[in-house]
Amino acid sequence: PNVVALCADLVASLKLDTFIKENPDRFFQMGIAEANMVGVAAGLTIGGKIPFTSTFANFSKNGTPNFTITQ
């Protein structure tokens, strides 16, 4: 059960009700804070979790500029 779901205050619109009902301990309501949600998801991977973030596409782009990809 390493899969977790994070949502930016759109549970009903994104049809997450079933997941939440069956896995309440693996769901995180992040509020209207998409950039923060992406940061939390990145942090969860360090602990071995597999996060899925959910929001509307036009809002998700707001979270990506906070990260710089380096190799």
Notes on the protein architecture:
There is one protein chain. This protein has a three-stranded parallel beta sheet with strand order 2-1-3, with helices on one face. The protein is flat, with a radius of gyration of 12 Å. The mean pLDDT is 83. The termini are far apart. The chain is an alpha/beta fold and 71 residues long. Strand 1, helix 1 and strand 2 (27-29) form a beta-alpha-beta unit. It has three helices and three strands; from the N terminus they run βαβαβα.
Quick overview:
This protein is an alpha/beta fold and 71 residues long.
Q: Secondary structure elements and their pairing?
A:
Blueprint: E1 3-7, H1 17-22, E2 27-29, H2 34-46, E3 50-54, H3 57-60
Parallel strand pairs: 1-2, 1-3
List keywords for this structure.
single chain; 71 residues; alpha/beta; three-stranded parallel β-sheet
Order of helices and strands: EHEHEH
Q: Helical residue percent?
A: 25-40%
Count of separate DSSP helical elements: 3
Largest sheet: 3 strands, parallel
How many distinct beta strands? 3
The multimeric state of the shown protein is single chain
Instruction: Output the radius of gyration.
Output: 12 Å
Arithmetic mean of pLDDT:
83
Strand content: 15-25%
- Report how far apart the termini are: 30 Å
Main sheet strand line-up: 2-1-3
| Poorly predicted parts | none
Structural class: alpha/beta
Shape: flat
